[in-house]
Amino acid sequence: MKLKQVTIVALVAMLFINSCTNKMTENPLLTTPENSFGAPPFDKITNEHYKPAFEQAIEMGKAQIEAIVSNPEEPDFQNTILALELAGKELGNISTIFFNLNSANTNDTMQQIALEVSPMLSEYSNDIILNQGLFKKVKQVYDNRMQMELNPEQLRLTEESYKGFARNGANLQGEAREQFRAINKELSQLSLLFGQNVLAATNAYTLNITDSSQLEGLPEFLVESAKSEAKERGTQGWVFTLQAPSYGPFMQYSNNRQLREKMWRAYNSKSLNDQYDNQDIVKKIVSLRQQKASLLGYPTHAAYVLEDNMAKDPETVVNFLDQLLSKTMPYAKKEVSEIQKYASDNGFNQDLMPWDFSYWSEKYKNEKFAFNDEILKPYFQLENVQQAVFSLADTLFGIKFKETKEVPVYHPDVKAYEVTDRNGKFLSLLYLDFFPRASKRGGAWMTSYREQRIVDGVEMRPFVSLVLNFTKPTEEKPSLLTFYEVTTLLHEFGHALHGMLAQGSYASLTGTNVVRDFVELPSQIMENWATEKEFLKSFAKHYQTGEAIPDNLIEKIINARNYLGGYNNVRQLSFGINDMAWHNLQDPGKVKDIVAFETEAIKHTQILPMVDSVALSTSFSHIFAGGYSAGYYSYKWAEVLEADAFSLFKEKGIFNKEVAASFKENILSKGNLQDAAQLFRNFRGRDPRPEALLEKFGMN
Hints:
Elements lengths: L7 H16 L23 H24 L6 H10 L2 H16 L3 H22 L2 H12 L8 H15 L7 H31 L1 E4 L10 H13 L5 E4 L2 H10 L3 H11 L11 H17 L5 H6 L7 H32 L8 H16 L3 H4 L5 H16 L1 E5 L11 E7 L4 E8 L11 E6 L2 E3 L2 E3 L2 E5 L15 H18 L15 H4 L1 H6 L6 H5 L13 H9 L5 H19 L10 H9 L18 H4 L9 H19 L4 H12 L7 H9 L6 H6 L4
Parallel strand pairs: 5-9
Antiparallel strand pairs: 1-2, 3-4, 4-5, 6-9, 7-8
Helix pairs in contact: 1-2, 2-3, 2-4, 2-5, 3-7, 5-8, 6-7, 8-12, 10-15, 14-15, 14-23, 17-18, 27-28
């Protein structure tokens, strides 16, 4: 065979990488893991390993990029596009481990390391994206792609690689390039600070009750949990926090209106006028994002983001949100009016305030449908729900789960599972991390420690993780889930399926690496099974008696699935409208008051009275610390997709293997191998029907 010419620079790069390899033996982040799966060696990693590993991997990545740039051969797919796809894989592995753990199991040292390495990573990324020699080669391959006999995946990767450069400043020159570089660096640090502040503000607040009379109305499970929390903190009485398993039920059940208001104000003013204040950070992030968009030739950050989504432009999103709002607002107002009347009929002679709504709507639901979380939770023991979700995945997609002790985990609460197909072929590792702790940020999310890909003919299967904040077990009871937590597990498991069932050659095109307004389709469609009788009957058994959930209780769940559908839709739409208000600004500098701006932006979405001195924006991690800026609308957008997609399951059968196989083939396995709209058409046979969402909620 004919060997390709190796340049001196490339040879030096190879020698450099080899020299780095010799140093790896002391750092588990840079060595081959000892377990047979090649999973991250969490048991060997300490804080001292991170920064040296980052520094070393950055140098290795730079050498790999330089080898591409200095290659004298004519640029082609192999020596440019594929080489770029594989460059920096060591840095990618380290970053994935570190930043995932910084969200799921952080500490003060890690948070400081994050602030130190973030600008290093921004600089590294900028050096690649703004490398004129590299971009010239990528552009040359892109320009000649139709003459290169590329297969569809290679063609897609070439086009996405070029777009990645073009959309990230590669065409900028001179001062604009340096300004772009500085903006990226500052944004990376500000987003980290925002998230750290929200976590700190969440952890800083507790409601410590020592008078048992103030527990009136609270269900036994919540009282036990609060008692356990107090014991863990070494204090007397009962401790309630702003973590979802504590805050949500407290607002639903506490008879003490004064305490409800206190908790509500604390929750809705996180990082607002406190020691973890995010107001200046919000203003700066919005301003820098707008400056970045302007440098790239876009009028707003939203215009920049949305060009690459299914929605394509801000006007489409604004119209989408407004139309849904106008159609659902009458239903929301009617629902709130019903709750107000119910409260008045039961002696509450005041206007409902936000801290009243969860309380009275829960009471109304309990009377109207004769069930509540206290009745349902005994049937939703976490272990049973988890096994039911596993069984559902097996029924639909032919995959099996087996816990493995061979794989190291990053916290004692975490369990690891080997995922295989029906023939025993390894598909993925799945980590499950269920319970809240001070080191974990709030919410629920799916992430990956390794994306599916093929390297040198060898397939690398993914390592997927689900991180949640569910009700913890106590000394007296196992973890019993609320119905909302059941649907949350199904939601995040849908994301996991998207990652675990990925098929493709290139990591950047597989799994959940899809446009933002498509990524929620697999997650939101899975929620539908939570209100299907056949599914509930398969697992919901009383944790003490083993009695199957009664049919009449299932009927109540089904009948109540659209309870407050209008109100909840409007609430979600207000979040998307708030997001778009921030990111469709052409002159963010005019915003002087965060609270006033948010109030004005969402006032037409409010049904309950607005409250002074609170704001979502300062703790809106999705858009200021996550990847959903100008993208929160995507939850509703994807709901349209999933409502239409699930209607096919309803038509053919919720366990129909042909429909499931089509969904797996056309959606779950395809990642970003084709345009999202085409993938949906491949599954459904047509474009989505917007009416499907309204029909789902009975609002057509």
